């Protein structure tokens, strides 16, 4: 079936996590609830989330604020390095800093990252088949949000780095048939209290 409808992709990073990253803090839970309340009037059809507890807890707290929108774990929405750059891809003045940063991430998160990043692009981006627009939320981690925003803007693969997303902030991408992807909003925290 030909892609003839618009996809509206809502992206958020999990709420604030405990130091061991195994759960949300009280503040993180509140962030998730507030984001869910903000999204109540959006016609979401699904809440996808990464498999780690902090993303799953965030997704379920958001979904609890919505009317019958299923939340389910999805490996491509997980926490991983989507692309490990070579030195010659990077701006010379930032290469050492960026390579040091990416190589501090555990090797297993770097090794499987490119496959998962490709799956995320296949699953979450581009126009959709049918006549009805689709609205989906992905509760994920900073790296994947940077990767998807980078792809929407057709930036070089290494440019996922340096795009930092706040906990429970909202980014929206739009994919209309026949048009380039649009960055509608980025890192919007207007639903969260100022701390």
UniProtKB/TrEMBL annotation:
GO terms for molecular function: hydrolase activity. The keyword Translocase does not apply. Keywords: Hydrolase. InterPro entries: His_Pase_superF_clade-1, His_PPase_superfam, Mito_Ser/Thr_phosphatase. SMART domains: PGAM. The keyword Hydrolase applies. It holds the Pfam family His_Phos_1. It comes from the Bacteria. Transmembrane segments: none annotated. This is Putative phosphoglycerate mutase. It comes from Streptomyces himastatinicus ATCC 53653.
